[in-house]
Known about the structure:
Distance between the termini: 47 Å
Largest sheet: 5 strands, antiparallel
Strand order of the largest sheet: 7-3-10-9-8
Structural class: alpha+beta
Amino acid sequence: MSSILDERKQKILLAVVQSFILSGKPVGSNSIARALDLGLSTATIRHELALLEDLGYLRQPHTSAGRVPTDIAYRLYVDVLVGGEKPVGRDAEAIETLFAAQTREIEGLFHEASLLLSSLTHTTAIVFAPFSRADSVRHVDIVRLSDERAMVIVITSKGQVGRQLVRSPVRLTADTMSRVCAYANRALCGLSLDRIDGEAVARKARFGGPGKKLLADVLVAVRDYLGSIEERVFIGGTANIVREMGNEGPQWAQVLLEAMEKQYFILDLLKDLLRERRLTVRIGEENRLRELQRYSFVGTSYPVGDGLLGSLGVVGPTSMDYARTIGMVQFMADNLGRTLYTPRD
Length: 345
């Protein structure tokens, strides 16, 4: 499409898109004349704007108003005229700080990543976490709550944390809990759900009645948690949809918000990125999902390990700052991948 535009038209179109992204207001010939040093009269610029409108790159909301970009103008802008801008300064520091903490639970990390990406891009951010039942036990802990109650904590190799309350008909001593915990870690660490033989683990144990009961409860807690692991989607900044789409009318925001409540809608969107394995920008009607056809979507995948991929992206107005947003999405994915990726030995 860009081959039919000469250099002057491309510069004028770029100026219109950039001005509209910054101001959100229709752009007139006077604004373009001030922004560009092309030595052109406003009459010549008006003529070029009219030609760009005829070609479908611009539209005029009202007869007396300036022009605004169409979806194909944004597509040309993304494909030809801009590249992603890597975050710098406070933006980069905020993302790097998020991933610098070593003790955060993995679900909390995904949740915070979606909120931060949303805040930095003024969009709604979505993170797909491809949790797998192949995840294995990294550590088991038993925390005493009272003489008859304890909390079993399971930490997986991907950093997920499960908790389950267990009760004992007899008093649980600190020594019993310590010995059972040590044995459970020796027997279970490194094992995924399908490799845990609970009967064999229990048979080899050398505990009295309270210890055997506690070990049985620990095995149930570990198996139950590993069996419950599933794909998750974390969404941050849904309020941005309403705020940024005010010009389109609240009904469009409502359509998207209702669709986001349906997990299959989001999973379908983000799993497309796993197949494409590259940064993707879909603008307006390029989105095959009807609910997204007044929006733009920018997303990419990130590695988790052993061939497993996750994905993340943002949904915002077609007038979003593409250069900044693309850079933010890629930088977040790079950092998330480096944090989670554990290559096979």
